[in-house]
Design goal:
single chain; alpha/beta; globular
Amino acid sequence: MAAGDAGDSGEKMDDAHVRANRARWNQNADEYQRRNAPQIREQAFTGDITWGLWAVPESQLGVLGDVDGKDVLELGCGGAQWSMALARRGARPVGLDLSDRQLDHARRLQQEMGMWFPLVQGNAERVPLRDNCFDIVFADHGAFSFADPYRLIPESARVLRRRGFFAFSHTSPIYEIVTPAEADHASDRLVNDYFGLHRMEWPDGTVEFDLPYGAWIRLFRECGLMVEDLLEPQPGHDAASTYRDAADLAWSRRWPSECIWRLRKA
């Protein structure tokens, strides 16, 4: 295993947001997997990867490219459908998730598929794996929505090999600043502070993180990561999502609801 011994990290998760997000994901994991299975499960069987809430195909975006023979870390793997798809493409994945209940789903999927790779229960802000051991670090939302980027990005860079590739999708800052905390949908008005995006506490108890675009870029540079691209996928007219409804599709056709960063370690 490229990443060393896997298992429960044994660390003290003493940060309030870590405890809150772990508890919330353990509580919601079963419903999340049931509700979103039609969108996320098929790729584990076929290897046909899709990105984000609107399932934009990797074949269209070309984010990761050829992963054959690569050591890959997925931060916030959930039920490991993505890691399973990459394994079908010849990668050697390791899946890490904060939620032990999500990892229960990942183990069941491995059993069903008869495909095995390491699964690590741990905090992406303190990755319990050694330095310089992955060719690719990535997530489709995953930990990049729920971990503090000022801890997460340095950790991602630490475990990445020189010239390694780093990619993750995230909610667009534009979407964040027009979505009221108590609302189900984004508006067409500015309602949240752009310079207050770092930490957002939601009514359901989860804590999410984002940054203004300039702050993301400065953080990447400080961690030795070079920006290769920033994609803002626009869903098609007929896009369907188990995460969002028709009103969200109409909004996302006009403005970016998600973005995908593509970076390279110097």
